[in-house]
Amino acid sequence: MSDDTAEIMTSYTEEISGFQFFGSYTGRDGTILLRLVRKSNKIACDYPDEPQMHFRVVHPTWKVDKIDLSLKSLNISITNFCPTDYILIYLLEPEAILFTYFDFKTKNPFSTKTYNEIGVIISYAGEILTQFPMGESTLNRDIAVSGKYNGGFLRVFMWPANQTIAWTRVSTIIEKREFNVRKGIFYTPKPKESIQSFTIIPKLDGEFGCAITTFNNEALDAISSNTTNVTTAEAIYYFSLTVWKVYVTFLLVDSDQPTNLFTLYETSTIWRGFSADSCSVQYFDSELVCFLVPIYRDIPFYGFYVRFTSEGAVNSTRAIWFHNITDWKFEAFTASFSGGFRVHGMQNDIAVIDIYNISGEYNNTLKISAHYTMYPNNNCLWFIKSNGPQEWHIKTLKFPNFIQYDERFQNPDINTTVPDIGQTISLRTRSLTITYNSKVNLSTGNVSIYKYDSDLLRQETFALGNIAQYDPLVGYTNVTIDVFKSTFNQPDTEYYVMVNTGFVERPGNHEAIYGIERNIWHFKTESNFKDTHADTASGLLRLSVNGTNDFETAYYSSGGVIIEDLAKQIAEIIPVSSSRITISNKYQYDPNSHPSQILLRMSIGQAVALNESDIPDVIEDFQELLEYSQFNGLSRQTYTSWLDNTYKFVPTDDFWNRYKIAIFVVCAAFILLISLYLFARYKNREANNFVILNLVIILQDFVFDVLFVVQNGRDFEVLFIPSVLTLIVPIFLNGTAALFILLSENSREDKFNDWFRKFPQIASIFTIFACADVEFLSVLSSQIFGLDIFSAVFSERAENFIFWASCINILIEDLPQFIIRLIYWRQNITYDILPNIALVSGAVGLLAAVLGRMYQITVRCAPRKYQRTSNPGTTDG
Predict the structure, then answer these.
(1) Are residues 545 and 635 in the same domain?
(2) 273 in a domain, yes or no?
(3) Are 597 and 542 a contacting pair, CB within 8 Å?
(4) Alpha helix (H) residue ranges in 614-716
(5) What is the per-residue pLDDT for 458?
(6) What's 551's domain CATH number?
(7) Is residue 815 located within the same domain as residue 666?
(8) What is the number of other CB atoms lying within 10 angstroms of the CB of residue 435?
(9) Which of 377, 461, 477, 802 has an alpha carbon 20 to 30 Å from 303's alpha carbon atom?
(10) Where are the transmembrane segments (predicted)?
(11) Cis before 294 (ω within 30)
(12) How many domains does the chain have?
C-alpha cells in the first residue's frame, strides 16, 4: 500500500507563513487537532513555541477553527518547550481539549521536587474551562481518555523514590463545567522487584486498567553471579525463577480502589528488555489485548499478542514475528477496528505499518512519508501533506477489513437499524430498533436523540430504565427503544441518535459493546405541515427547592433578565420560536409547598412558522418534557433545570370560561338585591331603603375579607400579618362600639328602650353583624319594608357615635384592606377569582363608605329646616 492513493479530504491555507506541524491528535467523533509551531532565531531550540500555542481544530465536517493561546495568560514557562517539549495533548468529549504542562520555576527542569504537572481544559473555541494540579512532576507518566462519552481521563505516573504506580482520575461534565479530581494507588512493588514499565488500558465502558511490567532482581543477581560453587539444586532454583511478569488491575467507574491484581504473562526468559505495549480493546469482540514486546540484542524481533478479559481470563497468547526489521524501530501496536491488528514502526524516517489479519498472518505493509494519526473507530488513518509554505492537505487511507459489516454505522456489531440512516420517518414516531449481529444484554449505557443542526438533546434513554427492551420475536439481537411523543415533534427536521458504548454488553464476558457516534445514525421527519390557528394559553410553572434558591440569587443580580433567559431555554427545548414563550416578571411563592417554592406564569403564543406546533400540541409536548425532564434537555440547561417536574403545567382558561358560573351567581345576586330594594321602596317610600344596598355591600365585603385571609392570606407572606390585623382589629373595635351604643341607648327611658324590650334577639343579632361595620346598626332605624323591627329610634348622640365610628372604620379597615388587595393583585400570577372579587368588593365598599360619609357630612352641615322629631314607626303593613 502507498500513500499516493490517499484521498484529499480538505485543504487549508494559513494566513501567516512560517508554521510547522508539531503534533496531531484525533477524537472519537472524527475531530482532528493539529498543533503548529514556528521556529525562533532568538532561542537555540528546534521547535520552541512563540508566546502562544497554536491549534487548528478540524471538525468532522472539515471546517477548520483556529485557537491561539497566550502562554503569559496561562503562566506557562518557556522551559516546557525549550529545549525539550513536555506538553501532553488529548481530545475530550464533548468538544474540549486537555493539555498539560509543568510549573517550572527555573530553567533547569526537574532540578527540584517542587514542580507539579498542571492540567488545562479548553473548549474548541479557545475558552479556558478549568485549570488544576494533576500531581508531582515526573516524565514517567501517561494519560488516557475514557472510552465513555463525557467520561474524563486518567493520569498514571510512577513516583521515582519508591516506584509506586499512582493514578489521578478527572471526571468531567463539560457542558456544566463540572470537574471532579480523585487520586489513589495502583501498585507498590514487592521486595526485590522493580517496575520496568506500565501502560493504561482504556475500556469502552469508562473503566480503566493498568498493565504493569515487573522484573525480579533476585533472579538477575543469582544468574549474573559466579555460579561455580552452587549446587545443582540451587542452579535449578535460580534458573526457574520468574524474571519478567505482567500484572493487570482495573479501576472501576465509581471506585477509588483498584481490583485485585491478576497475572497476564510471566516468563523466566532473560531478555534485555520487556514491556507491555499498546493495550486496547478489540472492537469486533470487545476482548482486551496487550502486545508484549521482548528486546533481544537491543532490537525486538517479535511480540506476544495476548487476548484477555477484565475478569482475569487469558484467552490466548500468540507470538507475532515482525515482518521487516532491517533499520527498523518498533513504535506501537494497535488493534484494528474491523479485525486484525497493526504494528507501527519507523524505517529511515519513513513510517512503516505492517498489517496482520485476525489469525495473526501478515497481510500488507503501508509506508507513509508524512505525519499521520489513526482514526480510533473507522479503520482509517489520516495524514498531512504540505502544498506550499502556507497550504496543506489532509488525506485519508482505509485499511482492509477482515470482517464484514455495515461500515455506515462505523460499528462491526450493528447489523441494521429502524429507521435506517437517511430515512424519512413519521411525526411523533414512538420507537427505534437496533439489530445486532449477535446476542446482547442490556447494560448501563444510554441512547441519546439530538436535533442534527443544533445538537439539542431531545431524549436520553438508559438501558436499564424500562424504556429499552428486547424484541421477544427475534431473541436477544434486537433492542427496541421507546420514544416519547414529544421527541420527534417537528416536521421536515433532521435528528441523529447517539448510542453510548456500554448500552449493551456481550453475554459471555460482560464486556461493553461499542456504540454509534454522533451524526452517524441520522434521519428526518416527514414534511407534514398543517394550518395553525391564532390562540394563546398560559399556566403556572413551579421551581424546585434548589431551583428556587438559585433563582432568588440570580434574579436580583441579573435585574430580572434571568426570566427572559429561562423562557428562551424552554422555547429552544420544546422547540418553538422564542417569541412564542413569555414568562411574567412577577413571581410568588406556592403556599402549598414546604419549604417555599416559587411560582411563575408562562404564556404560549400562536405559531409563527409552518413547522411549529399549534397551542394544544405545544402544551402536550411541554407537559411530557417536564414530566420526564431527567431524560431530555430541560435537566441539562442551567435555568430549565430549576423547574419542578412534579408540578404539572396546566393551562388556565380565560377568565370568562373559568369563572362564568361564579359571574352568573354574582349577577343573579345583584338582580335579587335590586329586586329587594324595589320591593322595600314599594312597601314604604319614606323609609331609608338604600340601607339595603349598604347592608349587602358591608356584609359581602366582610365575607370576602375573611375568605381572602383564609384562602390567600399566605400567598405572599409579607401581606399575611397586615391582612390579619386589618381584619381582627376592626372586628374588635366595631363590636365594642356597637355594644356600647346599644347598651347606652337602652339605659334611657325612651322609645328605644321600648323597642329593645320588644326585639332583644334582633338587637343581639345586629350586635354581631355590627362587628363587620358599626354602620350595620343604621338598619335598625331604617324603617325598610315598614317593619317594626327596623323602626328603632336612636338618639342624636348615638347617631353621631355611629357616624364617627364608621369614619374611623374606613381608615383602619376599608382603606388598608383595599391597599393590601391592590398590592396582591399587582403581584399575583395565579388569577384566582376570590382575590379578584375581594379587590372589586373592597373597592366598592370603600367607595360606598367614603361617599356615604361625605353625604352625611353635607347633610349635617346644612341649615336645619325643621326640628328633629321622634320617629313614630310603622306597622308591618
Answers:
(1) yes
(2) no
(3) yes
(4) 615-627, 655-683, 691-712
(5) 95
(6) 3.30.70
(7) yes
(8) 14
(9) 377
(10) 661-679, 691-713, 719-742, 762-781, 836-855
(11) no
(12) 3
Q: What is the pLDDT of residue 71?
A: 78
| CA–CA dist 532, 688 (Å, integer) | 59
Regarding whether 836 and 783 lie in a shared domain, the answer is yes
**Helix, strand or coil for residue 166?**
strand
Domain range holding 417?
A: 407-525
Q: Choose one of 496, 525, 554: the last residue of a domain.
A: 525
Confidence bin at 621 (pLDDT 50/70/90): very high
Domain boundary among 652, 668, 701: 652
Q: Does 615 fall in a domain? A: yes
Which pLDDT does position 243 carry in this prediction? Answer: 84
Backbone angles phi, psi at 755, to 5 degrees: -65, -40
Identify the bridge partners of residue 383 per DSSP, sorted by sequence position.
372, 395
Distance between CA atoms of residues 337 and 237, nearest Å: 44
- 539: amino acid identity, one letter: G
Place of cell 310603622: 874
Ramachandran area for residue 473 (φ above 0: left; ψ -120 to 50: alpha; else beta): alpha
Q: Closest by alpha carbon to 56, among 22, 28, 103, 82?
A: 22
- Residue 147 CB neighbours (<10 A): 23
Output the average pLDDT for the chain.
82
Claim to verify: residue 433 and residue 552 sit in the same structural domain: no
Q: For residue 485, what is the domain's CATH number?
A: 2.60.40.1220
Specify burial of residue 288 (Cβ count, 10 A radius: 0-12, 13-18, 19+).
buried
**For residue 44, is pLDDT > 60?**
no
Say which amino acid occupies 614: D
What is the reported pLDDT for 520?
Answer: 92
Q: Which one, of 461, 435, 433, 448, lies nearest residue 495 by Cα?
A: 448
739 and 760 belong to one structural domain: yes
Q: Which of 271-275, 305-309, 720-724 has the lowest mean pLDDT?
A: 271-275
User: Which residue is listed with cell 380565560?
Assistant: 654
Say whether both 518 and 543 belong to one domain: no
Q: Which residues contact 399 (CB under 8 A, 6 or more apart)?
A: 336, 338, 342, 355, 366, 379, 380, 381
**CA separation for the pair 461, 463 (Å, rounded):** 6
C-alpha 410/C-alpha 721 separation (Å) is 68
Phi, psi of 639 (to 5 degrees): -90, -40
Q: Each residue of 79-88: pLDDT tens digit? A: 888 777 889 9
Q: What angle do CA 821, 824, 825 make, to 5 degrees?
A: 85
Residue 642 reports pLDDT greater than 90: yes
User: Does 727 lie in the same domain as 639?
Assistant: no
End-to-end CA distance of the chain: 123
**CA dist list (Å): 713 to 164, 171, 542, 609, 826:** 67, 48, 19, 43, 15
Q: Give yes or no for residue 866 having a pLDDT over 60.
A: no
How far CA 38 is from CA of 12, 49, 86, 149, 658, in Å, comes to 17, 6, 17, 34, 73
- DSSP state for residue 556 in the 8-state scheme: H
* 47 vs 460, more confident: 460
- Is 645 a domain residue? yes
> In terms of domains, do 560 and 601 share one?
yes
Which residues are 130's β-sheet partners?
Answer: 121
Say what the pLDDT of residue 143 is: 93
Q: How far apart are CA 228 and CA 231, in angstroms?
A: 8
Contact 153, 92 (CB under 8 A): yes
Burial of 470 (0-12, 13-18, 19+ CB in 10 A): middle
